[in-house]
TrEMBL record:
Name of protein: RluA family pseudouridine synthase
Residue stretches spanning the membrane: none
Pseudouridine synthase RsuA/RluA-like domain: residues covered: 25-181
Pfam family, one: PseudoU_synth_2
Record InterPro entries: PsdUridine_synth_cat_dom_sf, PsdUridine_synth_RluA-like_CS, PsdUridine_synth_RsuA/RluA, RluA_PseudoU_synthase
Organism per entry: Pantoea piersonii
Molecular function terms from GO: catalytic activity, acting on RNA; pseudouridine synthase activity; RNA binding
Lineage top rank: taxon: Bacteria
GO terms, biological process: enzyme-directed rRNA pseudouridine synthesis
Length: 232
């Protein structure tokens, strides 16, 4: 979910939205990094997933959002009834979402769970914070895919871990703040420490991609399994 202040002006996004599947009820799309999910209050932030898609699918609505820097799969409802049915699946946590990410450093454990409640902090806006008192329950699973070194210009290597992340709840910035809590922020994450490792400041984007989405088609009852390969 994007939580950007009205002072933020998104740079132009020249990448196109990829439509992976469509029928009369819904559409599955791949969002590029650097595109807002919804248009902002600031008129300079008019361009967004919704702004573009409503011109192709009149009356469509977003069922969920991805952060500005996150790329990957989104399901779009083409009418209000479908939106309500899909939103119910999200709220009941029957939708499975998986993400690919590059984390700073080499993660020690091969897999695990991050259980840390997340709260809004008006003093730190747009940042969220881990707070046992005011936070809402938030849980994410991670699994290491590979540990490697990325060669840097001028020598040296950036130690990185490719992981598969599965959020079990859907809090704002959940995966980004949970990875920071793990001690290995997502590479390129400007809000939660992903540009602090020497060499990471040149990363062109947030290295987080929504790679899998599993849900039930509200009309056919068919189980939809969508996958989209990570671009990094």
């Amino acid at each position: 979910m994007s939580t950007l202040s009205d002072t933020f002006i998104a740079p132009p996004c020249h990448e196109k939205i990829e439509t992976l599947y469509q029928d009369e009820h819904l559409a599955l799309i791949a969002k590029p990094s650097g595109l807002l999910s919804l248009s902002g209050k600031n008129p300079l932030n008019l361009d967004s997933v919704h702004h573009r898609l409503v011109q192709i699918f009149p009356g469509c609505t977003l069922v969920h959002r991805l952060d500005f820097g996150t790329s990957g799969l989104m399901v779009i409802a083409r009418n209000k009834a479908i939106n309500a049915a899909l939103c119910q699946q999200f709220s009941q946590r029957t939708v499975i979402k998986r993400y690919s990410a590059l984390l700073c450093g080499h993660l020690g454990d091969t897999e695990g769970v991050i259980d840390a409640p997340i709260a809004k902090d008006p003093a730190l806006f747009p940042l969220m914070s881990i707070c046992a008192v005011r936070g809402k329950p938030a849980r994410s699973r991670y699994r290491v895919v590979e540990r490697f070194y990325q060669e840097q210009e001028g020598g040296g290597g950036l130690s990185l871990t490719r992981v598969e992340l599965t959020p079990e709840t859907g809090r704002t910035h959940q995966l980004r703040i949970h990875c920071q809590q793990l001690g290995h922020p997502i590479l390129g994450c400007d809000l939660y420490g992903g540009r602090e490792l020497p060499g990471s400041e040149r990363t062109p984007r947030l290295m987080l991609h929504a790679s899998e989405l599993h849900f039930i088609h509200p009309v056919s009852g068919e189980r939809i399994t969508a996958r989209h390969a990570s671009p990094f």
